[in-house]
Amino acid sequence: MFKFLRFVAMVPIVLAAVACSNMGTSSSSTSSTASSGRPELEQKARDAYKALIATTPKADELRNKATAVLVFPGVVKAGLLIGGQEGDGVLFDPNGKVLGYYNLTAVSYGLQAGAQSFSQAMFLMTPAALNYLNSSSDGWSVGVGPSVVVMDEGTARTMTTTTLQSDVYAFIFGQSGLMAGMGVQGQKITQLSH
Fold first, then answer.
1. DSSP for residue 192
2. Which residues are the signal sequence here (predicted)?
């Protein structure tokens, strides 16, 4: 019995170590192989963005008012009590021109188990939000800086163009519609080297 309890206590520690080590190597390997992997990343980001716009009318409304849109086409989240998220994304201007490439990471604690993959789009509504993203030398820790509203189905229904007051609107999607119970607090977004 004691061995089993000790094993159960070690699982979150091992998962956290694996998640953190994979997050670090993933972003650095992405940076070093950026030239070979970016066309594929860009295409995946464009496809995810088109799918969001096609299925979510409020995202289409925001697109017309946004200064830029940061799209992470494949964020992977996994954990058992301690979890992690990681994914690479592309920043687009209103005309679809690529402005940069970014990495998203997060570590979370609490009641959680399993793994999932989803997409995330962040509509930067003000030039100040875009400047903050680009001026944070060691990355943007979401929850510090520009105000971010996570759009779920309920929030999207009640939002109108006259109630737009936040700097950033985030959509988490791609698993099955807009995902409930998902947040962006604690995410760190860092620009990848060119």
1. P
2. 1-16
Residues in CB range of 118: below 8 A, 6 or more apart: 75, 77, 172, 173, 174, 175, 179, 182
Of the candidates 24, 120, 7, 20, the one whose C-alpha atom is nearest the C-alpha of residue 78 is 20
In sequence order, which residues have a C-beta less than 8 Å from that of residue 132 and are 6 or more positions away?
Answer: 140, 145, 146, 167
Look at 29-38, 51-60, 106-115, 166-175 and tell me which has the smallest mean pLDDT: 29-38
* 40, 115, 135 from 190: Cα distances, Å: 19, 23, 10
Q: State how far Cα 5 lies from the chain centre.
A: 35
Based on the structure, what is the number of domains in the chain? 1
- At 113-162, the pLDDT tens digits run 677 889 999 999 999 999 988 886 677 787 666 778 888 755 555 555 55
Range of the domain at 22: 2-191
Considering the entire predicted model, what is its pTM? 0.72
Q: Dig out the tokens for 52 from the structure.
A: 């969001």
